[in-house]
């Protein structure tokens, strides 16, 4: 038996100002996207923004439903919309932010497992790393590729 270890490298920023311009703009878009959240059940508002290889940004927000599984997370709302609008373009980066009553959480919003899997799919589709930016009021995390937040990605078919 050999014990193995997985190391994950990511960057922590203290504020939006510390990010480079394109990441800052995407993070700000994710915060603005929270306004589109429809969350009558959880009251947790999530916003996401995807930057495409043509420079366009596509926003998404969580959409809840009385039949719970029929709702959708902000990240998948954004990615499916981006995929449908720009099928020939790559998703270079996704940012997400969350909060209650429109107020950003202090800690970064972290994506659910299903959204990570969908990120992995679009990253594989483009063949290039998709960075993931998790925004919080007191810190921001940036992961260079989806593999960093979904080690041992399923991509066997
Ligand atoms: N939610 C997201 O939009 N993204 C995530 O990655 C995690 C959870 C939403 C789903 C639901 O509307 C609310 O947050 C509470 O789980």
Helix count equals 3
Strand residue content:
15-25%
Distance between the termini: 29 Å
Give the averaged pLDDT, no decimals. Answer: 97
Helical content, roughly? 10-25%
Number of strands: 7
How does the overall form come out from the CA principal axes? Answer: globular
In quaternary terms, these chains amount to single chain
List keywords for this structure.
single chain, alpha+beta, 157 residues, binds tetrahydrodeoxyuridine, 25% helix
Could you describe the 3D structure shown?
This protein is an alpha+beta fold and 157 residues long. Helices cover 25% and strands 24% of the residues. The protein contains three helices and seven strands, in the order βαββαββαββ. The chain has helices at 21-33, 74-85, 113-126; strands spanning 11-13, 44-52, 57-61, 91-100, 103-104, 131-135, 140-143. Strands 1, 2, 3, 4, 5, 6 and 7 form a seven-stranded mixed β-sheet that branches. Strand 2 and strand 3 form a beta hairpin. Helix 2 runs parallel beside helix 3 (113-126). The longest helix has 14 residues, at 113-126. The radius of gyration is 15 Å and the shape is globular. The protein starts with 10 loop residues before the first strand and ends in a 14-residue tail after the last strand. The model has no long low-confidence stretch (mean pLDDT 97). Tetrahydrodeoxyuridine is lined by residues 39, 42, 44, 46, 62, 64, 71, 73-75, 111-112, 115.
